UniProtKB/TrEMBL annotation:
UniProt signal peptide: none
Annotated protein name in UniProt: D-amino-acid transaminase, chloroplastic isoform X2
Domain of life: Eukaryota
Transmembrane segments: none
Family: Belongs to the class-IV pyridoxal-phosphate-dependent aminotransferase family.
Length: 295
């Protein structure tokens, strides 16, 4: 774990702590992001660092260091950990200070990072989702990746209580929005890849990469086109394929939404192909998405 409060990296789990008076702890005033560690490389680190910098700006948090220093610290933390496969999670907070509502008592912002080793493979088994009854965050907060994830946690718990993997949020107009920590996409009967607009939801780094890789399927004629648009519930439930997309699931096929079976109730072929594209991209993709870790 790296902590700017400690001023360095610690390897003792007992020392991996955050001050209770950190504004991120008692007021939720912090932002975070995650990057996958795959085969000695950080996948889409540049894209994720760009997003946390943007989130910090939206949350009115001054960066503790410049962008290049933040990225260097993150890479060094992974290097010290010796983790070959896993995830890097990192936070920028308003910093420790008083237990007040305002950040006026916070003397300096803080950067934290932690490396989590994970040797398990990403699951490609089809899952069930339900429609969330938990209100989604308004666009101002949904479009920034802040630590205020209570609605997300409650949505995930609601799904698990109903025997599902995740719950799908609908926006105020009734259109499909996103899952609790992932984007959602569909393959229509017309062989279009359809993804909801990102103006009211988090701009997913993995989702953007999947859209880029899916262009190859358009060129091959396996997809007619890619469309980012408003998606009605009926349109989503009547699709041939449905998938969840995010750094925690990569591309996960959905075979049932509420009581509606998606397609033929089996993992869709295009969803499987897109998962394979991402897995291959993590292994041998361009330097723009793979940053080597100097162990």
């Amino acid at each position: 774990m790296y902590s700017s409060i400690f001023g360095g990296i610690v390897t003792d789990e007992a020392a991996m702590v955050i001050p209770m008076d950190d504004h991120m702890v008692h007021r939720g005033h912090g932002v975070f992001d995650t990057a996958i560690i795959a085969n000695r490389h950080l996948y889409e680190l540049d894209q994720h660092v760009d997003r946390i910098v943007k989130s910090a700006t939206m949350a009115k948090i001054i960066l503790p260091f410049d962008r290049e220093t933040i990225q260097r610290i993150l890479i060094q933390t992974v290097s010290v950990s010796k983790c070959i496969n896993g995830s890097l999670r990192y936070w920028i907070s308003a910093g420790p200070g008083e237990f007040q509502l305002s950040t006026s008592g916070c003397h300096q912002p803080a950067l934290y990072a932690i490396v989590i080793e994970d040797k398990s493979l990403f699951d490609s088994k089809g899952i069930k989702v339900v429609t969330s009854s938990i209100p989604m965050k308004p666009p101002q907060f949904a479009t920034m990746k802040s630590v205020n994830y209570l609605p997300n946690a409650l949505s995930k718990m609601e799904a698990e209580e109903k025997g599902a993997y995740a719950a799908i949020w609908l926006d105020d107009d009734g259109f499909v929005a996103e899952g609790p920590s992932m984007n959602v996409a569909f393959i229509t009967k017309e062989k279009e890849m359809l993804m909801p607009k990102i103006d009211k939801i988090l701009n997913g780094c993995t989702a953007k990469r999947v859209l880029t890789l899916a262009e190859g399927l358009v060129r091959e004629g396996k997809l007619r086109r890619i469309r980012v648009d408003n998606v009605s519930v009926d349109e989503g439930k009547s699709a041939d394929e449905m998938m969840l997309i995010g750094s925690g699931v990569l591309v996960r096929p959905v075979i049932q939404w509420d009581e509606q079976v998606i397609g033929d109730g089996k993992e869709g072929p295009i969803t499987k192909t897109l998962l394979n594209f991402i897995l291959e991209d993590m292994k041998s993709g361009p330097s723009s998405v793979r940053v080597p870790v100097p162990y």
